[in-house]
Each structure stands twice: as C-alpha cells, then as structure tokens.
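Structure first, sequence second, as always.
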C-alpha cells in the first residue's frame, strides 16, 4: 500500500532518490484525433520510495519547489528523457518529440537553460525531439526574466509550450507577451458541459490562438465527446486518458512501435503583412481600422466546405439591416442562411478566391430570421480575399454591401419590361427608337428575337433595305420620312409590306423633342395589318 511522504521526508530523501533511480519518468502520448497518429508525448515525474511506495508530483513537487530542490529533480528528469531518446535513436525505434515540465522556480536559476543544453549535447539528441513546457505563472516574477529564458531556449532551437493555458485570469495578456510555439488547454479548467458556456469560451480561445498562429493541444481529455468537440472547434491534438494514461518507458516503446506518427501541423499562416497579435488588441491600429473604416467586414475560415465565422465588425451587422448582434452571427451556422443555389454561388466564389489569390465578388440572397422582423431576404454583395492558409484551411476576409434595394428596383424594371413585351406580342407590334442625331435605331426585344436584329443598328435605315426587311420600292418614301423627322414632322404613318413575304404592316412614327424644341428621337412601330383594319 502506497503511503504519502511528509515534507521532512521528501526534503531528506530527494538526493538519494535521484541517485538510486527512485525518481523516474512516465510518458503520456499526444494524438491527432483526426488521424489517430501520435504527434508527441509528455514526460511526467514519478517517485517510487522503497518504504512508502509510489509518490505523485502533486504531493512532492510543491515541497521541492518551496525548498529550492526542484531544479535538481527537473534536470534529472531531463537527463532521463535524453537517455531515452538516445536509446530510441540507437535502437532505431521511431521516436516523437517529448515535452518536459519546467518549474517556474527553474527560471530563477541562471544556468538552467545552459544546463539542459549541455545535457542534450552530451546525449547527442537533436533539439527537435525535446520540447519545454512552461506555465503562465512563469510570468509572475516579471516578464523580463521569462522573456530572457524564452529567447535563450529559442536560440538553442527548443519548441516552447504554454502549459495549463486558461488557468490564470490574465491568460490572454500573458499569451500576447510571451513568445510560445504551442498552447496546451486543460479541459479540467473549463467547467460545465462541452458545448455549453465552457465550450464557447474554449471555442473562442482556440479561434484566437489560430490568429496567433499557434497550435493547440487539448489536455485532460477523458471522453470521446470532449475529443470530438475539440476537433469540431479546430483543435485536433489530444492528450488525456481517452487515448492513454501516462505509461512506463517499456509500455511507451511498445506504443511507439505500434502507432503511426506524424509531425504537428503548422497552424494558419497569415499571408498578408497583418500582425495577428495586434488584431486581437482592442487598442491596436488594425482593430480600429477593422472596426471603423472598412465598412461591413467579416473574417471566416473555410475548410472542405465548412466555414466558421471568426470575427465580424459592427458595420457588418448594420449592413445586414436586421436586428442582430455580432454574437448572433458568431454563434450561428453560416450556411443556414442560404438556399442551395446561393450557397453554391458563395462557395464557388471562395474557391475562386483561393485559386486566384485575388479579390473575388458575388451577390447572394440570404434569409434571416429575427424576433422583431420575422423572416426577411436580403441580397448581399461580398468581396472576398484569402488572407491566410494552413493545409486545407483558409482564412478569408470578406467585405459586404447590402444591395437588396438595388436588386428589388432592378427586378421591378425587368418585370415591367417583361409585361410590356407580353402585351406587345399579343398586339403584334414591333417597336423601336430612332435617334435623330446619330441615325441609330434601337429595336425592341421582339424585333431582335424575331427578325434577328442587333441591339443597335447604325446608319439607319440602310441596313434594313440591304437585308430585305423593308422592300426596295419603298426606299424613296422611307428615306423621305427620315428627312421629315429630322425637320420636325411630329407624326408619320403608312402601310408598308415588310419582309420578302411582303406582309402588310401599319408603320407609325411619333417624334419626341428636346427642351429646345429640336427633334430628339422618334418612336417607331409596325403593327400587323389584320383583315378588319384593311376593310375599315
Ligand atoms: P501537468 O503538466 O498539467 O500534467 C498533466 C497532469 O494531468 C498529469 O498529472 C497527468 O497524469 C494528468 N492527466 C493526464 N491526462 C488526464 C486525464 O485525462 N484526466 C485527468 N484527470 N488527469 C490527466 P501528474 O503526472 O500527476 O502531474 C501533475 C503535475 O505535476 C503536472 O501537471 C506538472 O505540473 C507537474 N509535473 C509533473 N512532472 C513534472 C516534472 O518533471 N517537473 C516539474 N517541474 N513538474 C512536473
Ligand atoms: Ca505539463
Ligand atoms: Ca497541463
């Protein structure tokens, strides 16, 4: 039966425990939940005392820290990890990067980084197989010291992880100031059910870390629901009991040989020169510009048909014209507002923007529901551009403009045109306009369709005689009409047999004048002469 050691025993026994290999390491794999492959592992300290049995870090590490003894234990653990990695390399066991924990008290030891670097070289382990975990509390002693340590670690080539992110209340500020390469989010710090409020906070943290171009590992994941949820918010890397408890060196070697490995993916890389850190700082120029000067704008991610809105500004909401808030948009399913056609149109535009790397535009109808207005359809013109990419995932910047009014007006005009066309078809009328000054003729839709005319006929009426639409024997009379119109004769009419079939049409002209009373244009029409008209 294991029994806990008291503080005095811990302090008294630690040197011997290190010398006698009673302090050892267990390993907990880190898995990509999307592929099932191993991306790394964390080394955790254990102490097996000859009298009291197994001791866990929660019980002895704080005592070691208080007594300035953690430094020794940490360096010992680091040496055990290097020994292990060297063994893997020598025995050709395919290895993964191993993370080790650095106590915040190690920072106060001036030579800590140099010591681990000396040990690493002694064992000849490439630096990419070792990762340092620091906690937010490292910043307690002031940013200057921890920044110096981080710089030195980076100089030597170590990847640095921020452990227990989200446990401190000042997380975001710390993250902004510390140059870490990976973030570890502990599920246990997120109270409440997955998908609830805790989930929302987690989601926004993951989104924010994407902006900071930093990969995230979710720790303490015990259930498949938690893992699936983390995956759904873009965090695939999982460390927790779900995949494996911390295991002994021998068990870990088995796992290494049995599981496939893969490197951790680079997160979103910003393409433009935008500074991601500044983007989240409410006082930064970037944020002020985004909020105030760009009109309605949104930033979303796109990956294999899925989109996720990361950020919208206030003008975006105003532009939609619905009684909604920024949060309504962030929390909703971005595709729900589209029918199938409009969704396809929008997605095609995203694809175009990905291919061209340029700004692309589309106009789509979206349906919104709100408590006050009920259902409403709005037409939005979107100009979008890809500003970031990581693997299959793209970061898209979209500017929007509400063009519903324009569209409705246009639809009205089109509708009245359609009605007029229908009416004239029933009346067997062909209509056109003749511009006096330019001698241009503009045929109606029906003329264009039935008589195969272009939208503008220049040098009228030469072409209609050349084509045989008007018969040669009416040429003289018709050219005289054109002259009369130029001179200002208000009305002309006659029956003219048209086309080679010499079908009789009642051709009429009515002249319109400009504000000075000069002839401007003439409205021409040709009505099929039906029997009763002839007999009239
Ligand atoms: P930590 O760095 O946050 O390590 C993760 C802790 O969570 C480990 O506890 C691990 O066993 C536990 N854990 C992993 N997956 C799950 C899960 O799914 N559910 C639950 N409930 N727990 C899980 P452990 O090994 O007891 O270590 C506790 C803490 O002690 C560590 O927290 C770390 O802060 C510290 N520690 C461990 N090894 C070292 C070391 O070598 N040096 C230093 N300075 N600190 C260490
Ligand atoms: Ca840790
Ligand atoms: Ca942790």
């Amino acid at each position: 039966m294991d029994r806990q050691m008291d503080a005095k025993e811990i302090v008294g026994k630690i040197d011997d425990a290190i010398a006698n290999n009673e302090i050892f390491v267990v390993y907990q794999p880190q898995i990509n939940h999307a592929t099932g492959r191993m991306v790394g592992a964390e080394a955790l300290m254990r102490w097996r005392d000859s009298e009291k049995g197994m001791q866990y870090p929660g019980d002895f590490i704080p005592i070691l820290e208080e007594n300035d003894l953690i430094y020794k234990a940490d360096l010992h653990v680091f040496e055990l990890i290097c020994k292990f990695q060297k063994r893997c390399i020598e025995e050709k066991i395919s290895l993964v990067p191993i993370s080790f924990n650095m106590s915040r008290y190690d920072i106060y030891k001036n030579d800590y980084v140099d010591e681990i670097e000396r040990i690493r070289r002694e064992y000849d382990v490439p630096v990419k197989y070792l990762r340092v975990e620091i906690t937010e509390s490292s910043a307690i002693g002031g940013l200057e010291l921890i920044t110096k340590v981080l710089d030195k670690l980076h100089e030597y080539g170590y990847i640095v992880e921020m452990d227990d992110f989200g446990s401190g209340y000042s997380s975001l500020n710390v993250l902004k100031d510390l140059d870490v390469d990976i973030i570890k989010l502990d599920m246990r710090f997120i109270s409440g059910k997955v998908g609830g409020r805790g989930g929302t906070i987690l989601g926004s943290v993951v989104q924010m870390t994407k902006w900071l171009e930093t990969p995230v590992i979710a720790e303490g994941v015990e259930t498949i629901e938690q893992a699936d949820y983390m995956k759904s918010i873009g965090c695939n890397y999982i460390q927790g009991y779900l995949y494996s408890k911390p295991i002994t060196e021998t068990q870990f070697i088995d796992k290494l040989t049995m599981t496939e490995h893969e490197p951790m993916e680079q997160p979103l890389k910003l393409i433009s020169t935008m500074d991601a850190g500044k983007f989240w700082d409410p006082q930064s120029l970037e944020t002020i510009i985004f909020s105030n000067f760009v009109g309605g704008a949104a930033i979303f991610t796109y990956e294999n048909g899925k989109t996720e809105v990361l950020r919208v500004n206030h003008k975006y909401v105003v532009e939609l014209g619905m009684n909604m808030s920024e949060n309504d948009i962030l929390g909703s399913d971005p595709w729900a507002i589209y029918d199938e056609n409009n969704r396809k149109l929008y997605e095609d535009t995203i694809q175009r923007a990905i291919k061209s790397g340029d700004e692309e535009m589309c106009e789509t109808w979206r349906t919104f529901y709100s408590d006050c207005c009920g259902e409403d359809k709005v037409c939005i013109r979107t100009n979008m551009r890809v500003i970031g990419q990581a693997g299959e995932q793209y970061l898209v910047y979209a500017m929007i403009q509400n063009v519903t009014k324009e569209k409705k007006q246009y639809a009205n005009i089109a509708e009245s045109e359609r009605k007029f066309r229908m009416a004239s078809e029933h009346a067997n009328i062909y209509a056109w306009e003749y511009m006096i000054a330019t001698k241009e003729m503009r045929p109606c839709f029906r003329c264009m369709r039935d008589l195969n005319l272009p939208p503008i006929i220049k040098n009228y009426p030469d072409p209609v005689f050349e084509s045989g639409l008007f018969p040669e024997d009416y040429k003289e009379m018709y050219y005289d009409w054109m002259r009369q119109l130029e001179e200002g004769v208000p009305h002309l009419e006659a029956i003219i047999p048209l086309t080679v079939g010499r079908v009789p049409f009642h051709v009429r002209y009515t002249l319109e004048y400009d504000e000075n009373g000069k002839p401007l244009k003439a409205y021409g029409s040709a009505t099929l002469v039906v029997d009763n008209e002839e007999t009239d």
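Margin note: The mean pLDDT is 86.
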